[in-house]
Amino acid sequence: MTAQSTLLLLIRHGETPTTGKVLPGRAPGLHLSEHGRTQAERISERLTGLPVGAIYSSPLERTSETAAPSAERTGLRLNHNDGLIECDFGDWTGAALAELAVLPQWQEVQHSPSTFRFPNGESFMQMQARMVGALEVLRAAHPGAVVVCFSHADPIKAAMAHAMGTHLDLFQRIMISPGSVSAIGYVQGWPPAVLMVNSTSEPLSGLRAP
Question: Which of 27, 139, 127 is nearest to 84 (CA)?
């Protein structure tokens, strides 16, 4: 990695007891499942050999718990960053996905998210702008470093779509699994480069910004 390049790793938190069942949103008190804790340990192992310069996490419990083993292994402080937090699902917070899937608005969520705002919550456009802005601040704060960011599926998908130059209406086509790693490389004077999406297995030690 050159002095002018920065690597951001975007990591989704590990599984929880409600993963794939409800929209937990920002409601407090949701912790990792046993498998989620295993995924968190695996992430920390995958970082071995990578010169990590900083670790940030959404302030929610499930992301903080996923980040903790990586902070311990690297000896770095775990910093909370509100910009990495889950989308505010408003009135839909805690709703079962099976119940939401039959609502007419669900088709808008899936096919034209750029026009959708969660009732009394955040719009996808606001979420993307928040997440992209937070990553830009972190990139600028750590030039030439590897920065690890623990977040949530939708914010990561939105950030990856932005880095790819993909319209937000297509961001639902990007898969971000629990415990997965995606990577964006930044080189001064060049657009961002998407280096990895939804990786759950391979070592990260050889990952470099272009």
Answer: 127
DSSP string for residues in 145-165: SEEEEEE-HHHHHHHHHHHHT
Find how far residue 140's CA is from the centre of its chain. 18
pLDDT in tens, 11-61: 999 999 999 999 999 999 999 999 999 999 999 999 999 999 999 999 999
pTM of this prediction? 0.96
Work out the pLDDT band at 202, boundaries 50, 70, 90. confident
- Dihedral over Cα of 76, 180, 158, 8: its sign: positive
Answer yes or no: are the C-beta atoms of 168 and 158 closer than 8 Å: yes
Q: Computed from CA positions of residues 158, 164, 167, 171, in that sequence, does the dihedral angle turn out positive or negative?
A: negative
* CA–CA distance, 148 with 30 (Å, rounded to integer): 22
160/10 Cα distance (integer angstroms) = 9
Query: Beta strands 193-199 and 78-80: pairing type?
Result: unpaired
